[in-house]
Each structure stands twice: as C-alpha cells, then as structure tokens.
Amino acid sequence: MSAIAFSMAVQAGEVSTSPVGYIRSANPVRIATINDQLMEGVAGMNNVRNDWHQADIIAALRKRGTTLAAVSRESGLSSSTLANTLSRPWPKGEWIIANYLEIHPSEIWPSRYFDSNGQLIKRTTRKVSN
Asked: How would DSSP label each residue in 33-47?
C-alpha cells in the first residue's frame, strides 16, 4: 500500500496506525490526529543528520582515486595519522579530508559541528604555550 493510499485509508476510517499493525478504528479522525502529532515529533528529532560512516569516507576517497593513507602522506603526515579523524574529532584532519572531497567538514561530521538543536557548536583550539 502506498503512503498516499494508506493516508486516504486512515482518513476514511478503514485503517489506523498502531504499534501492532493495521487495525480498524471507530474514531478515525482522532487516531489520524494523534498519528500526525506523533509524526511531527519524529520529524523534529530528525533535524540532526548522521555522520558519514567510516567506510563511506574511505569509499569517497577511493572514488577520487586515492586512499586515506595517501592523503595523509600528501599532507605531510604519517600514513596512519588521518585515520584518527574517523573515530575522534580533530579539526585539522577533518579539513584535510573534506578539502580533498571538495565539501565542508560539517557535511561529513555534522555531530561535530552542530548540537541536537541544529545550533553551531563553538569549537576552540588550545593555545600554544611559549
């Protein structure tokens, strides 16, 4: 059943959404209203995008004809250094990878740049001691 057909069936009172499946309803308007409220809540939770999976980042680099180790070496780093960026925040490494993929690092790691409300996270760097 398509989403439109299902929506029309809910409005007609033929079915309603329920954790246990499709059931007939005596009050389709009330159930449709409750369902709409629930879906609005779910939609609000989806404002935060997920970070790319490590394999997706590596695959994107492979599609560009290179490897994470090669990008790391081209940047003057040890071949395994950029791998740290895949598992923990490191702005310099994030920018190196993102620049190679020609996108902003927040596209790859939104959780490192935006909080759960979609607000920009202030990221500071440590001061170098003299």
From this structure: HHHHHHHHHHHHHTT
